[in-house]
Amino acid sequence: MVVTVAAMSESTTPKPKLDLVILDCPDALALGRFYAEVLGWELEEGSDRDWSTLVPPGGGLSPDNPDGRATLAFQRIDDWVEPTWPGGAHPQQFHLDLATGGSIEAAEPGVLAAGARVHEHQPSDDGHFKVYLDPAGHPFCLIK
Question: Which residues form the VOC domain (predicted)?
Fold first, then answer.
């Protein structure tokens, strides 16, 4: 059962909406292009090597999306260090799960062609998900 904070609160205070999930990387435009290809989304006009944003189907949060369709953005970090997972000196800190609609096998060729690589560590015992690395080394999963 999922219980939302709003359901537990009597407050009528407006709640913020998730707008961006921002990934640090060595080249924001390159990583933006990777996720644009994988997800079938567009790069926002003006995206460059320092900052890139994807436009999800239906638009982003500001100002055209008051209902909050969160999107991904990427920012270049000069001293980028690729995450390590599992464990290590630079842990992943978070990862993205991308729903496949049921077939990881059908989705895999597209993510590999875009530049992903299969991670050596595959902890799923039942095949419900598979772990990959994006071109900057962030772990992400394709899930059934």
Answer: 17-144
Contact 139, 88 (CB under 8 A): no
Query: What is the architecture, at CATH level 2, of domain 90-144?
Result: Roll (3.10)
CATH 3.10.180.10 placement within the chain: 17-78, 90-144
Q: CA torsion, points 56, 35, 74, 137, in degrees to nearest 10?
A: 150
Sheet holding 117-118, edge to edge: 96-99, 139-143, 129-133, 117-118
pLDDT tens for each residue of 72-131: 999 999 999 888 888 888 887 778 999 998 799 999 999 999 999 999 999 999 999 999
| pTM for this model (two decimals) | 0.77
Count CA within 13 A, CB hemisphere, residue 96: 20
Q: Does domain 17-78 have CATH number 3.10.180.10?
A: yes
**Dihedral over alpha carbons 9, 60, 129, 32 (to 10 degrees):** -140
pLDDT, one tens digit per residue, over 3-29 is 555 555 556 766 667 778 999 999 999
